[in-house]
Design brief:
mainly alpha, 7 helices, 154 residues
């Protein structure tokens, strides 16, 4: 991730790196709030129910957690969408309104990704866990980079 930051600062300059960091932080905070802590709970209880071999509870827990996270993260994204002007004015970066509004549509994906990652940790599937850690997260960062590059780099 450090290499990505170096590349972003090299190609976008200081202002572009600041915009990227701000947008990525807003998206990350929205995703974490959208999880409501279900990502931590699903990790704990999947491992707990796996040990007791109560697989039907794992299925119910997974469906329920993903449904709640999806609905709540959509609410968080919608609220952030309507508060984008206020947020951009607070940071004195009015040119980032469109980027803040665009990142709002990714908040449910972010929250579901966090929940999915912790569910995989609960299943103790280390191959998929490494795949997400080494491929999916850097891809998300690169996607955010291109979003900032095309819509608000400088």
């Amino acid at each position: 991730m450090f290499v990505i930051s170096i590349l972003i600062s090299r190609f976008l300059g200081a202002k572009g790196l600041g915009n990227y960091t701000l947008i990525f932080t807003i998206g990350s905070i929205g995703g974490v709030i959208g999880c409501l802590g279900f990502n931590v709970g699903i990790f704990r209880y999947i491992a707990f129910y796996r040990e007791k071999k109560e697989y039907y509870k794992i299925i119910y827990l997974t469906k329920f957690s993903f449904a709640v996270v999806l609905v709540f993260s959509m609410v968080v994204g919608l609220n952030l969408f309507f508060l984008a002007d206020t947020l951009a004015a607070y940071f004195e970066k009015i040119e980032l309104v469109i980027l803040i509004k665009m990142i709002c549509f990714f908040i449910p994906l972010w929250a579901l990704g966090l929940t999915c990652f912790d569910a995989i940790r609960g299943y103790q599937d280390f191959y998929k866990q490494n795949l997400i850690e080494k491929v999916a997260r850097p891809s998300l960062m690169i996607g955010t980079y291109f979003l900032v590059l095309f819509f608000g780099g400088n």
